[in-house]
Amino acid sequence: MTGSVLPAGALLLFVCLSVSVAAADKSVEPLTQFVAEEARQAVAVDDSAVYVIDNRAIGKYDKLTGKRLRQWRGEKAGPIQHLNSGVVIEGRLYSAHSNYPRQPMTSTIEIWDTETLEHIGTHSFGIYLGSATWVDFHRGHWWVVFANYGTRGGTPGRGPEWTQLVKFDGQWRRQAAWVLPPELVTRFSPYSNSGGGWGPDGSLYLTGHDEAALFRVELPAAGAALVYKGRLPAPIEGQGIAWERNAERLRLYGIRRSSRTVVAVNLRNHQTR
């Protein structure tokens, strides 16, 4: 499991995203897209690169050219089987990981060095609340969603209503937890919450399995369910998303797994409905 520099011939298609993609909603400003063979689960971003995540593979791509710079690939029978959403924090890529669709559900957070794509660490939850689908770091805390499904990979009797967002401190000690609002349980069913993260505007956005939309939620003033605030159309197909960590703009990266494409958009006047 090592990173390796690919030859110049690995340069992939890099094109402008058609304005028609966002025609249905003026709050979405299209930027660019590029094809990446790993665009199946999620993306993560830092200042210069996009990290495209598949079940057992990660590609590091130059933001400006779409050129693949490095690739990590795990063994088919190795310990890493189903990577999900990732986030880059201080030169490290953290990815939620599970044994989906196996039972009982187990989850870990796997860690890579962003420069070399060398796998450098892990944090195991063991058998916990479900399958870890996304991880983020916000205001000094880790946030992880543990998904449950009403279809393949789910535990009998525990559908998406059992999905939980858990807040941990810096040492992975549980601080609090919330369930999905009823609107999203219905919307995501029979799958669950696949991606999410705190945007530069301070709002929490979630994605489903394949719908071309973001869903804004808030932590509740009381009770255990997140508060649904609305839907924002976006040219993605659910799955893992990544926000640029820049408070001056709302720039989002996502994937369209049907075409193995990474998409970047600016969100302006981001009115949800």
Secondary structure elements and pairings:
Blueprint: E1 4-5, E2 14-16, E3 28-35, E4 42-45, E5 49-53, E6 57-62, E7 68-73, E8 82-89, E9 92-98, E10 106-113, E11 119-127, E12 131-138, E13 141-147, E14 164-168, E15 174-179, H1 182-188, E16 195-198, E17 204-207, E18 213-218, E19 227-233, E20 242-243, E21 251-256, E22 261-267
Antiparallel strand pairs: 1-7, 2-3, 3-22, 4-5, 5-6, 6-7, 8-9, 9-10, 10-11, 12-13, 13-14, 14-15, 16-17, 17-18, 18-19, 20-21, 21-22
Provide an overview of this structure.
- It is a single chain.
- With 273 residues, the protein is mostly beta strands.
- It has a single domain, classed as Lipocalin (Beta Barrel), CATH 2.40.128.630.
- Helices cover 3% and strands 47% of the residues.
- The protein contains one helix and 22 strands.
- The strands form five sheets. Strands 1-7-6-5-4 form a five-stranded antiparallel β-sheet, with no helix packed on it. The chain has a five-stranded antiparallel β-sheet with strand order 2-3-22-21-20, with no helix packed on it.
- Strand 8 and strand 9 form a beta hairpin.
- The longest helix is centred in the C-terminal third of the chain and has 7 residues.
- It is globular, with a radius of gyration of 17 Å.
- The N terminus is likely disordered.
- This is Cycloisomerase.
- Keywords: Signal.
